[in-house]
Amino acid sequence: MKKIFMYIGTAGLLFACSPKEQKENSSDNFKYLVDEFADLKVMRYQIPEWDSLSLQQKEYIYCLGEAAKYGRDIIWDQHFKHNLTIRKTLESILNTYSGDKTAADYENFVVYAKRAFFSNGIHHHYAEDKFFPEFSEEYFATLIKNSDASQLPLKEGESVEEFINFITPVVFDKEMYKTRRNSGQGIDIVTTSAVNFYEGVSQKEAENFYAKMQDPKDETPISYGLNSKLVKKDGKVCEEVYSANGLYAEAINKIIYWLEKANAVAENEAQRNYTNLLIEYYKTGDLKTWDDYNVAWVQDVESTVDYVNGFIEDYSDPLGRKATWEAVVNFRDFEASKRSNTISDNAQWFEDNSPVDPRFKKKEVKGVSAKGIIATTLAGDCFPAPPIGINLPNADWIRKNHGSKSVTITNLMEAYDKAAEESPKSMLSEFAYDQTEIDLCKKYGSHTSVVHTDLHECLGHGSGQLLPGTQPGALKEYNSALEEARADLFGLYYCADPKMVELGIMPDAEAYKAEYISFIRNGLMGQLARVELGKTITESHMQDRKLISEWCYENGKADNVIEKKTKDGKTYFVINDFEKLRDLFGQLLSEIQRIKSEGDYEAGKNMVEKYAVQVDPELHKEVKERYASLGIKPYGGFINPEIVPVVKDGKTVDYKVEYPTDFLQQHLDYGKKYSTLNPTR
Length: 681
Hints:
Layout: E1 3-4, H1 19-25, E2 33-37, E3 40-44, H2 55-69, H3 72-79, H4 83-96, H5 104-119, H6 137-145, H7 160-172, E4 198-199, H8 203-211, E5 228-233, E6 236-241, H9 249-263, H10 269-284, H11 287-299, E7 305-313, E8 324-333, H12 334-345, H13 347-352, E9 368-380, E10 389-392, H14 396-401, E11 404-409, H15 410-421, H16 427-431, H17 435-460, H18 479-495, H19 498-502, H20 512-524, H21 540-555, E12 562-567, E13 570-575, H22 578-598, H23 601-611, H24 617-628, E14 635-639, E15 642-648, E16 651-658, H25 663-674
Parallel strand pairs: 3-14, 4-5, 9-11
Antiparallel strand pairs: 1-10, 2-3, 5-6, 7-8, 8-9, 10-11, 12-13, 15-16
Helix pairs in contact: 2-9, 4-5, 6-7, 9-10, 10-11, 12-17, 17-18, 17-20, 18-21, 18-22, 20-21, 21-22, 21-23
């Protein structure tokens, strides 16, 4: 619940760089956009200031990066129980197929494989529906039969024909495993979800299992169920915990090995302390140790190098409890951190002056830190499609008592911006109402987008408090969407505050309007390009933006705050009163904070279902057609740079950065080097 993702419709995300950064990042031959297929684009990102790091810091980053890459198999298995079987089949075909690789069907197969690698499985990384090959079942069988059988994930004694009979419906049948995470009403969202967190367990059984563990009087509750699979054995519901001796042991032991290697070259004692706690957590699976690690980690605000590593975010769980595995290795962007530090230094002022009920405000904001970071390795649920901002840890009591870390990933935001410059058309030119909007967004959009991200991560997620007795998971399946809306609203409300100009964060009193325009445009129209016709909105971040925009549009109709206009047969949404829109943002923030603080499930459910899910079919069709005419892919992800040891006379004397250009080859290489888990069926 603590991530912000790049969304379509931004006006650009340029950053002020030091002269040295500009020189390093302005190479004429560096191409950011390197591949496009289906609805996806693949980019590269650079690692500026790499040579400013010491050899020890580079080695530390290298070891942390290896620890990150070894978690790859975990996320594939968590997303769907047959994903590893499918991936190893795709790898076998790509590496060993002896037939014609120039045929149209083979090209279609390659696209399908790329889609699977992009999504860490066969369900869309964002929309969460199963996607399907544009080649026949018969051709799939031909591919398998003409590949090296020894490389296929066959069970003991299983023939190739038997394997084909098993895997074909898993891939092609439109009714089997059709949604990774179901959020529909009136159904069992656990048994109808393909995600691999539950086996033989119903929604009610899962909810009852964890309800028995919760103590309303516990002021420091552990995150029950965060790192486990819930299964039924001999008629009894029980947990299979992820640990060095439990589920995913082979991968976790590799992660431990490289964390230990990293710890040997850590920058300071603080890093060694919390990394030892993380290692202990991986060895035991003990969630109290996980909390201890997070408390120690959040208190380290001085180190240059940092990382995220673990079972962290619960977006993929239909019940909003179980976490997918992820990792991000990074180091501080000192120039970008100046703005973030200003925001975090004034966190108490923002908390005190927010428009929410005083009962729900923190009396004392503790430990809020913010910085810009430069990512060096993305992994797990952060790869290939990462967030651009992160705020952790997730536990409310840790955030209240010890604070949180907020980061904006500056080199990824720059890569998005540079890749957009390589595209001939833009969302802005198509969906902005007039030249005034275009000029305003071009003038301020890059800056205000970054500021909103900083406010969202640093203060939005870190704001407010639960009332005594309110359980962290009280909002269940609606928690993620409401939490993201709360953070977005906090940022939107304060973007327009005179305090932002006073602090030097905003250039003037007009700048915030660019972010308001972009947000409303995207929430009501732009993001619909990502949704298949006839589908509802199910992804939490998209629900968040739709909820805010739709609620403000409906509740501002009496004053014509946001006006729906038609020009040349095209629909536009135009903001007529920015001050009243800010007031609406404040009202909605106040209500969503109340819902969260009180754990008002019914109110949260009603709000999400009313404003965030349903799509106007005519408007949807129009947006899809207009977007298609631009030739722009709505989703983007990355190839990781490769950090390579430089060895001289048997000794590592440096680490250099290489920038691969082949998305598919990187994933095939990862499959050969970092595979640890055997498929189970």
